[in-house]
Write a structure and sequence with these properties.
The protein is of the alpha/beta class. Among the domains are: 47-299, Rossmann fold (3-Layer(aba) Sandwich); 320-496, P-loop containing nucleotide triphosphate hydrolases (Rossmann fold, 3-Layer(aba) Sandwich). 37% of the residues lie in helices and 12% in strands. The protein has 22 helices and 17 strands. It has helices spanning 2-14, 20-23, 57-62, 88-97, 105-115, 130-145, 172-185, 202-212, 221-229, 248-253, 257-266, 286-295, 331-347, 364-379, 396-408, 441-448, 469-476, 501-510, 514-525, 532-549, 560-566, 608-613, and strands at 42-43, 119-123, 165-168, 193-196, 216-219, 242-245, 276-281, 301-305, 320-325, 356-360, 386-390, 412-416, 431-435, 459-465, 481-483, 621-622, 625-626. Helix 8 links the parallel strand 4 (193-196) and strand 5. Helix 6 packs across helix 7 and helix 13 crosses helix 18. The longest helix is centred in the last third of the chain and has 18 residues, at 532-549. 51% of the residues are buried.
Length: 631
């Protein structure tokens, strides 16, 4: 169905146009024949007996206690973790303060394994409780290594140069979210949690950390690397017990590989201090396996697979719609038509839950344009919902305020770049709307994961512009996307003079958003195209958007240097005065955007990590191979 749906959408559009130090990471071994975990979905890739069995079933057996397990052999309730030695103060925070009793499947598979002290590589989807799954074992390990940290009596003794645990996250928002969760978990202990993220004042963070101390630091890679290499920061971790890399695939996607390597060089070597490393990732491409080779003990780690063989990474129960958009001139009219329609459906009682949407764009400038348009529509009384925006250009304080406001809102729209696509928890999101072909397949999956979290309802929408349709088909052609032609603005032929009220509103608002539109116009060319012919067709469509979609007299002017950098020197652009070429208002459309998307190559010969690589789940993969029956 997926493949057929793409043909249908395309026809609609066509009608218009290994480091050595790792090997030294050993630790003392406690002789025991018993095994802690019987998780039937985890692959044991390990070769030495486990050490640091502070949290073992042997200890429970010595006390004559029987660890109760579910039918699958898993521990399924947080209270049962007391039988594995988890400190009561941590469990009280979970079961009483946070009111969590039953584990999610991810927690049931991951926590007992991590409590052994072995290194862990876990493949887990977002929205499945994975944050608690790695925080609880991490905090327990810190307490076992220093028992006085378990009670409030030790509070106030922390130091900034005695950090015991580190959690790395790819985004500021996710790092702050993890830190908040960690503070809830440690409220009955003497553990001090601090966060260190970019976009905030470094000196203010250092003053707070030097005053309060720090046991657990939750950070983004860039900021942590900066702190560790700054000899005057006072930040150090000579007794580091555990290191967690959350959303490892995303950290590599956004270019943090060098920072991760540098961070490990500042941490104590395995010969000085043994630590547990946990690597958590929703997808495990070759570059994540390469990272595991660098940071995980090859002789003592366990791969935990929390995604079933017949379970899709894309949440198959989420309805997913694809809308063929004739031109970029139709994108924002179609977007606001959909928003208005869904809000009205809830107000008329046709939907059970309020309309609460996240709209994803590929560039910051497109987010800013949507935010400005939403603001003007609200002022004019055309939009009956609160609007917020989050993107990388905002200061961290502004991003945090927007995220908190959106979390607490009822009927609302969040215009966002990919900074919120991973790990961020926004309750009751009813719609995820993605504009244009995502940068990669994983981005589509993680964006979609912001809706239908837990047992809630939700749906996904993808706006596929005709110039990008071939790339969309190549990237997402086997996913369960269903064609949706219910938006009248999507197929409007503005090039022939056709219009709708939404198009007229865009033209009226064009006067108010001119400078922002100019940046949005140029930002789309930076997304990458595959051939010179494609570039020319994209230029024609962008010019149509400017003149017919926003009512501008001419497209935004561009400079020769910029055009040369984009490979558009001979394209139909509106160059600054002094160039001997203007632009032509004609031109056909039909551009297809593509390009190679490489995830990196794996390591050399076969080893434990190669075995792990053969058991990871790829999107669309089931026990019978890759899914091709849809779209």
């Amino acid at each position: 169905m997926l493949r057929h749906g793409f043909r249908r959408c395309a026809s609609q559009a066509a009608s218009g146009a290994a480091s050595a130090s790792v090997l030294l990471r050993t630790r003392p071994v406690m002789r025991s024949a018993a095994s802690l975990c019987h998780c039937n979905a985890s692959m044991a890739v390990k070769s030495t007996p486990f050490a640091y069995r502070f949290y073992s079933s042997e200890a429970a057996a010595a006390d004559g206690r029987d660890v109760q397990r579910g039918e699958s052999g898993e521990i399924t309730q947080f209270g049962q973790l007391a039988e594995l030695g988890v400190h009561p103060n941590l469990l009280t925070a979970v079961t009483r303060d946070m009111n969590y009793q039953n584990m999610t499947p991810v927690q049931a598979k991951t926590i007992p394994v991590a409590l052994k002290g072995t290194d862990v590589v876990a493949q887990a989807k977002t929205g499945t409780g994975k944050t608690l799954a790695f925080l609880l074992p991490l905090l327990q390990r810190m307490i076992v290594e220093d028992p006085k940290l378990a009670t409030r009596s030790s509070f106030g003794t922390a130091k900034s140069n005695d950090i015991r645990g580190i959690v790395l996250s790819p985004t500021r928002e996710l790092a702050e979210q993890i830190a908040t969760e960690a503070r809830r978990l440690t409220r009955n202990t003497g553990l001090v949690v601090q966060s260190a993220v970019g976009g905030t004042q470094k000196q203010a963070m250092l003053r707070q950390t030097q005053k309060q101390g720090c046991h657990l630091l939750v950070a983004t890679p860039g900021r942590l690397n900066d702190l560790l290499r700054d000899t005057l920061s006072g930040i150090d971790a000579p007794k580091l017990a555990a290191l967690v890399l959350d959303e490892a695939d995303r950290m590599l996607d956004v270019g943090f590989e060098q920072e991760l390597t540098e961070i490990t060089s500042y941490l104590p070597s395995p010969r000085e201090k043994v630590r547990q490393t946990m690597l958590v990732s929703a997808t495990i491409p070759d570059n994540v396996i390469r990272l595991a080779r660098q940071m995980i003990r090859p002789d003592d780690f366990q791969f935990v697979q929390t995604i079933g063989q017949n379970e899709s990474l894309t949440h198959e129960r989420v309805p997913q719609n694809i809308v063929a958009i004739h031109s970029w001139a139709n994108v924002y009219p179609a977007l606001f038509e959909l928003i208005d329609r869904e809000i009205e459906a809830f107000r008329q009682g046709q939907r059970k839950i309020p309309f609460k949407a996240i709209v994803y764009f590929n560039t910051t400038a497109l987010v800013e344009l949507a935010s400005d348009l939403g603001y003007h529509r609200r002022r004019a009384g055309l939009l009956k919902a609160s609007t917020f925006s989050i993107h990388s250009k905002l200061h961290q304080a502004s991003r945090t305020r927007a995220a908190d406001a959106f979390r607490n809102a009822g009927c609302a729209v969040l215009f966002s770049s990919d900074v919120t696509a991973r790990g961020m928890d926004f309750p009751n999101v009813s719609h995820v709307i993605q504009v244009d072909t995502p940068r990669d397949r994983e981005s589509y999956i993680h964006r979609l994961g912001r809706t239908a979290r837990g047992d809630k309802e939700g749906e996904g929408w993808l706006f596929a512009v005709s110039v990008s349709m071939p790339a969309t088909k190549r990237l997402l052609g086997d996913l369960p996307l269903r064609p949706n032609d219910t938006l009248t603005t999507a197929a409007t032929r503005v090039d022939t003079g056709a219009s709708t009220p939404y198009h007229e509103q865009m033209i009226q608002q064009g006067r108010d958003v001119g400078p922002v539109f100019s940046q949005a116009y140029k930002s789309i060319f930076g997304l990458g195209v595959s051939t010179a012919k494609d570039k020319y067709l994209l230029v024609d469509d962008m010019n149509l958007w400017a003149v017919k979609g926003f009512g501008l007299e001419e497209p935004p002017k561009v400079g020769n240097d910029w055009a040369r950098q984009m490979g558009l020197s001979s394209a139909n652009l509106n160059f600054f005065r002094g160039n001997d070429r203007g632009f032509d208002r004609g031109g056909d459309r039909g551009f297809g955007r593509g390009g190679d998307r490489m995830s990196g190559r794996g390591g050399g010969g076969r080893d434990a990590f190669s075995d792990m690589g053969r058991q990871v789940r790829r999107d669309g993969q089931s026990s019978g191979g890759f899914r091709r029956e849809r779209y």
